[in-house]
Design goal:
Elements lengths: L9 E5 L2 E5 L3 H10 L11 E2 L10 H20 L4 E9 L4 E6 L6 H8 L4 E4 L2 E4 L5 E2 L5 E4 L8 E4 L14 E10 L5 E5 L1 H9 L2 E2 L7 H11 L3 E6 L6 H6 L12 E2 L16 E2 L4 E4 L3 E6 L2 E6 L1 H8 L6 H12 L5 H14 L3 E2 L3
């Protein structure tokens, strides 16, 4: 640990945030090596707490340091950036490819291979501002170095791994979702509503952004859509993923934003159903992505009809009539609307009659 009151010996730039790491001696030398791409002379704006870590357990200690630096940077940028659990690489022009996926989806392996061709920005966290600029997080990569101990991952510098350097500025250009083990079809386009739901699951503090779902939808538009890589081994698809940077963007589909305005709630209408307060919503042709609190739902068919119709409170009978006007008479229309309303109420999308 550094002496109390003294600035930390190691300061790294993570997502544009100067983060201090309070270590000294051999630990400082080791971490400088691991964080070689991120070292900065800036004064630390935040310092991570390493008090409970065992410095003698170097592998576990260094992995925990990386996690705490990442969390400190995410906390500092929450509410200002779209922060994704993703890796990223950029070409010489700064066109950035974001590779999104949960733990175990193969992000680090994919980025390690891609960064032999394109510049390494991060294998874990991608932070995007409103202009689509990507703020680098060139952290050490967690790599299994002992096959007999796959649970222990060493922290290796991108320099030690020979990964290419990115340009000084980078901007988001294409997005890929990793679907490992789901098939070997390669790159397939993902409909925007489904892509939004999957991306939301791999974000940090998204709910703190203004209009979070609309922010994700607009980002997808700017990147020409989203592709999923359905694969078993990434090596066989490396050329295809690199080539995605030059692929023609897909045309953005029609969609409409439905922001929540508490001033429009109005008074309850006896016997009528109404929308529950929501965080944000984006409507597509026949689907709706709805955020309630920090959870996200994808609605289709009757669910979309009901939610849109409840722009003003309506009775169940009125909703049945609306459905039959659009889709024709159905003997079970009343039951289907009733079941849908109960399900949506249970999930806090709508409110039962007062």
């Amino acid at each position: 640990m550094s002496n109390e009151g003294q600035p930390p010996e190691v300061v790294v730039e993570s997502l544009g945030v100067a983060v201090g790491i309070p270590v000294t001696g051999s630990a400082a030398d080791r971490l400088r090596r691991q964080w070689s791409r991120a070292l900065t002379d800036r004064e630390a704006s935040t310092v991570v707490d390493l008090e409970l870590l065992d410095p003698a357990a170097e592998v576990a200690h260094d992995y925990a340091v990386t996690s705490r630096v990442t969390m400190a940077a995410l906390d500092a940028t929450a509410g200002r950036r779209l922060n994704l659990h993703a890796g990223a690489v950029a070409d010489e022009d700064g066109r950035t490819l974001a590779v999104i996926g949960p733990s175990g989806s193969g992000k680090t392996t994919a980025i390690s291979l891609l960064a032999g061709r394109l510049g390494y920005l991060s294998d874990e966290t991608v932070s995007i501002d409103e202009t689509l600029e990507v703020h680098p997080h060139p952290k050490p990569l967690s790599v299994i170095t002992d096959p007999d101990a796959p649970y222990l991952k060493s922290s290796l510098s991108p320099d030690d791994l020979g990964l290419r350097r990115p340009p000084d500025r980078a901007h988001l250009h294409r997005i890929v979702l990793l679907h490992r083990g789901t098939g070997d079809e390669g790159l397939v386009p993902v409909p925007d509503p489904r892509a939004i739901v999957e991306i939301v699951e791999q974000t940090s503090s998204l709910v703190r952004l203004e209009h979070p779902i609309h922010r994700v939808a607009s980002t997808i538009d700017a990147c020409g859509g989203v592709w999923a890589l359905e694969y078993h081994e990434f090596t066989g698809w490396l050329e295809d993923v690199v080539g995605l940077l030059d692929r023609e963007p897909r045309t953005a589909p029609w969609h409409a934003h439905h922001p929540f305005d508490p001033g429009t709630a109005g008074d309850p209408v006896p016997g009528a159903w109404s929308r529950a307060p929501w965080t944000d919503a984006e409507e597509y042709d026949d689907e709706l992505v709805l955020m309630i609190g920090d959870g996200v739902h994808a609605l289709a068919g009757l669910g979309v009809l009901i939610w849109l119709a409840l722009e003003q409170p309506r009775t169940a009978d009125e909703l049945v009539a609306r459905a039959q006007t659009l889709w024709g008479d159905h003997p079970d229309a009343a039951d289907k609307v009733a079941d849908a309303l109960e399900l949506m109420a249970d999930q806090r999308m709508v409110q039962r009659p007062a």
